[in-house]
Amino acid sequence: MFRHRIPLAWNQLTWQRGRFLMAGLGIAFAVILMLMQLGFQDALYDSNTRLHQLLQADLVLISPTARNLTTLQTFPRRRLFQAANHPAIAVAEPMYIRPGLWKNPQTLEETTILVIGYNPARSAFD
User: What is the DSSP letter of 121?
Assistant: First the structure.
């Protein structure tokens, strides 16, 4: 009964070969754009969480007025000493994070960088 089936769907797709090719190229281009977007998203996430991944800390105290990593505000050093006196805390070290300007000595171009200050004798990083 169905011995001589006609591949109707394939015939409809390939009836106009130029149109079929353009549709296939459009779909391939859309897939490439989506994969690029996922790559950019992963790179952005990795670059923004790199500092947090490198910290050897179980608890980090920041000022309640801080909005994000680049606009951190200082808080009284007394709070750090209070935290250090807690019996469950082994070490409490201050860390200062501020944006700074760096001038390339070759091109004299200025770039904003994130400057991190900490005690190198007691490194808080892996």
Answer: G
CA angle (60, 52, 116) in 5-degree steps = 80
Q: Which residues of 5-33 are buried (b: 16+ CB within 10 A; e: fewer)?
A: eeeeeeeeeeeeeeeeeeeeeeeeeeeee
pTM of the model: 0.60
Backbone phi, then psi, for 101, in 5-degree steps?
-100, 135
pLDDT exceeds 80 at position 80: yes
DSSP character at residue 115: E
Break the chain into its structural domains and give their ranges.
6-54, 55-122
Contact between 74 and 61 (Cβ < 8 Å): no
Residue 116 is encoded by which pair of tokens? 């991190």
> Could you report the per-residue pLDDT of 98-124, keeping only the tens digit for each?
889 999 999 999 999 988 888 888 877
With beta carbons less than 8 A apart as the criterion, state whether 113 and 95 touch. no
